[in-house]
Each structure stands twice: as C-alpha cells, then as structure tokens.
Amino acid sequence: MAKKINARMMRAKMALEVAAELYTKNMFTMGNVVRIAIEPSAKEEPFSPLVLGINGDLLGGMRAPLEVAARRVDVAFVNPSAVVTMAYRGKGFFKKKLPLRALAVFPSWDRIAFAVSKELKIKSLREIIENKIPLRISTRSSGVDNTTHFTVGTILGCYGVSLASFKRWGSKIEEIPRPSMPQRGDSIRKRKVNAVFDEGITSWLNGALDNDFELLPLEPAVIKRMEALGYRRAVIPQARYPQLAKDIETIDFSGWPLITHTGLSNTLAYSICEAIDARQSVIPVDDDVPLDMKKLFGSAEAAPLGIPLHSGARKYFAEHGYL
C-alpha cells in the first residue's frame, strides 16, 4: 500500500521537484537564485525548517562551514574537501575547530594549477617572485569567501607574496567567476594572458597546454605547509595530460562534501542519504561516470573526505552495503 501523502508533504515535494528541475536545466544561467520556503499553514503545528545551503552570495564557500557550525544552516555543499578539513581542524581561515560532520562527499577530480607560457622560460613560482617578473594572469574572482581565491592566495602567501604584490611589480590580473568561461580560453589563444592560476583544470588546462603553456610545480616546503592546514598533496598526472613531460607536484582541489553539524538528528541524516540514493540517477555530478553511492564517503580519489561521517549517514551506508 502506498504511503498516504498529506498536504505538507505534497507542497514540500512539489517545491523540491520544481526547484530541482529548474536548477538542473538552468544551472549555468540561474546560478543559486532558487530558494525554497516550506512553512506551516495557520492550521498546522509549527515545525522547525531544515535549511539547505548551496554556495552563493548568502552562503559563500569559506563561510559555509561557519554557517553550518552555528546552525543557521543545517546542510551545505562545499568545494573542495580541503576547506571542510581546515574548518574541522580549526586551521587557516577558521579560528577554532568546528563541530562538523559529513553526510556524503560527491566526486569532482581537480587540482590547483599554476600555468605559464613557455615563452617566459620560467621554471618555478619562486623565480617569478624573486625576479618580480610582470605577468598577465587569469585567475578567479577576488574575495576572501571564494575558496579558490583563498587557496591561491594562501599558496602565494607561503612565498611571502600576494596577488596584490604581483600588481605592484606590473602584473595585470584578469578575474573570471568560473574557470570554464569562454573568456579564459579566448584569453589563452589570443595571448591576452601568459599565466593562469586556478583550479577547474579539466575545463582549461588542455587548451593551455595546446597553446604552449607549461605547469610550475609547488615546492615540497610549500606543500607541507598547505598539508598542515588540511589540504592534500597531489599530482597533475602525465597519464591524464600527455603534453606534460612528467607529473607535476601540487595541491588537491577535489570533492564536494555535503556537510552538517553534530546536532542534526540521526533520523534526518539517514533520510537525506536515503533521498540521495533514491534520486542518484538524476543528481548531476562532476565526474566521468554516473553517481556511485559506494564512492560518497571518502574512498575515491575524486571524493576525499577529511572529517567524520555523521552517525546517521554511516548507518545508512552500512545498512545498504555501501561501506
């Protein structure tokens, strides 16, 4: 017998299904403009809303863990996984350890890359900095809440400089909101830029390498300092990018953790994982293969996880044979 659906359930399901369809078909033009409010009518008992957050103007990437820890938001997506690890440890941007748990971590294989034109004959970031070489750099939009901007800035900070330092010695900075924007590829092909500092490399790196760019490796001491914050060391592999002469040492930027606070009930955490499982065939992921529930708890290279699973989520994964 089918479960009886009451008015509240009907309204909630309709709102969520409409929002999901709108977002899926218009995600690149609408961004995060879809917001849902499900409230009791005058005749219903009051209930506490479950607040879901997706990165946007009101819930910036670096701020999302803070909002969740303060329980102003119950569930949020954050990219990369390293930012959540940093928040859990109370390192870098975060001044204290935050009581966070993961419901899942969705795959998104990525790396931070520092690419420069071969014409410059530069072999390291340190060489650029020590010689104050002016560059034309394409990078992410500025703002401390942007996880990419924060990460690039933190890496440069390990060398004792910032993007502002580059500007002071004559560099020009082209800021773009997304690494996949056509403007990036156009700037590379037309030589409007001779350097790219960014992630999202699956969308732009092949084009840069095809246009005589090369990658600068990060130094071991810099990688070690980033690891202390919560980032993982990684390589940009020659096997994936045959134009490279060798693997390039850098920092991982993979994973979209779905996070919550320690106060979320086991029942709700379990139900959220159940919903993901039921809708896995239509949930979009940044991966080469469809969503696989067996990769959503930190076991995959594209979906690392540096914080504990919520006990309700762990129960769901275990009961359904995914762990």
Helix and strand arrangement:
Layout: H1 7-30, E1 52-53, H2 64-69, E2 75-77, H3 81-89, E3 100-106, E4 113-117, H4 125-131, E5 136-140, H5 147-158, H6 163-168, E6 172-176, H7 182-189, E7 195-198, H8 205-210, E8 213-215, H9 220-229, E9 233-236, E10 248-251, E11 256-261, H10 266-278, H11 311-319
Parallel strand pairs: 1-2, 5-6, 5-7
Antiparallel strand pairs: 2-11, 3-11, 4-7, 4-8, 9-10
Note down, in words, how this protein is organized.
With about 325 residues, this protein is α/β, with parallel strands linked by helices. The protein folds into two domains: about 50-110 and about 255-320, Periplasmic binding protein-like II (D-Maltodextrin-Binding Protein, domain 2), CATH 3.40.190.10; about 115-250, 3-Layer(aba) Sandwich (D-Maltodextrin-Binding Protein, domain 2), CATH 3.40.190.10. The protein has eleven helices and eleven strands. The chain has helices at about 5-30, 65-70, 80-90, 125-130, 145-160, 165-170, 180-190, 205-210, 220-230, 265-280, 310-320, and strands at about 50-55, 75, 100-105, 115, 135-140, 170-175, 195-200, 215, 235, 250, 255-260. The chain has a five-stranded mixed sheet with strand order 6-5-7-4-8, with helices on both faces. Helix 10 (about 265-280) packs across helix 11 (about 310-320). The radius of gyration is 21 Å and the shape is elongated. The two termini are about 30 Å apart.
